[in-house]
Amino acid sequence: MVRAPMPVLRGSITFARFRSEPGKRPQDLRRWLVRGLDRGAFEPLDPARGDDDRSAGFVALEDPDSTDFSSGVLEAGRALFAFRVDRIQVKGTAVRAELERWVAAFPAEHRRAPTRGEKAGARDEIRHRLRSRTPPTTRVFDVSWALDGGELLVWAASRKAVDEIAAAIEAAFEVKLAPCSVGAQAIRAEIAEDALAPTAALVGMTREEVSRGEA
Amino acid sequence: MARREQARAEAAFLRGATGVDGAATDADVRDEAEVEQGKAREQLLRGRTWLGRECLTWLLWRSEAGDPLARVEGAEVVALFTGKVLLRGVAGDVTEVAARGAAAPYAAQVKRALASGLLVHQARLRLTHGERVFEVTLDAEHLDVRAAKLPELLTEAEDDRAAERLDLCEQLGRMVDLLVGAFLEVRASKGWARSTVPALRAWMADQG
Question: A196–B51: do the CB atoms touch at under 8 Å?
Fold first, then answer.
């Protein structure tokens, strides 16, 4: 698979930031990293087998077809890898067009219109056939993780993708990732909950509305 | 009524989807303005977004004078809002205003909108750290870094350039965190309600 230049190395700079909670530092960082990536490694979709329409997992940064993390994953204390999402999407319009052709041809063969059950069976069969012919679409998102400082950058603009990648990293490495939003930083700074309520005079609400939690 | 339609109506009634008069029971009877305000309030609440908006608005106010706002790695950080600024609010008829223009963020029209209860939700900032200049678009909800511009890379070798680029990205993140830290320090203090908010309101009202 040929991919566009890796954003982590060149091109547009858009990323979501997380802070990984400092846990017990592994003795062998590289081994810990490879083990985690292996745990959540990408597995290609096989349309001929199984009914999965989506597969997601970690791949090597420089080669999204590779799940060999034995080299190049750790550079100067920074983990560099990517998260690949493959999806097979059979277009509804294509299924409908094929089904209409099948419905039109049915009476010539059977001298009657197809029953509802026969149509449903044909729809499934058409969808299955089209699925086996549809190549998956692939999206790859880079991840850089400064292991000493605990700063993790997910190089994606889509919030859905960011959340999925963060969850995959948490599961694979058994770490807790905290977002860097102002609200999350306020919590980390242990600012009392009372002091964090919206400022009535700024948000355009009355003090009563704010204290009633109507924000 | 045809038999099939009657059966369908009965089934809908049994499901509780319609009442005895045949009208939908869970129909949204709110008018368009109420729905819009409901959405705006939900956006404000999600992940304490109001704190992000208050932070960006405070930063806009503090940055107008051009004074340094924080100190990172031995050099001062000066912030300047440039280009497009997006304001959002929950009260009144207007829930979103986008202003575009070289000095739009500091324009009287923007201050007027802020004074009416809207806050900065997304903005483009130029952060000057010593001699280095970064540009970034930040949003109030997640504080994600979007379409950032980094200072010119100094290294030549490909591997070194990649490392320098990542260093600069992390440095940009640290600068943003420091600005947020400076805001939270003021926000959590007693002076926030007593002096900062009145000063902020006075700045919004001063549209001369």
Answer: yes
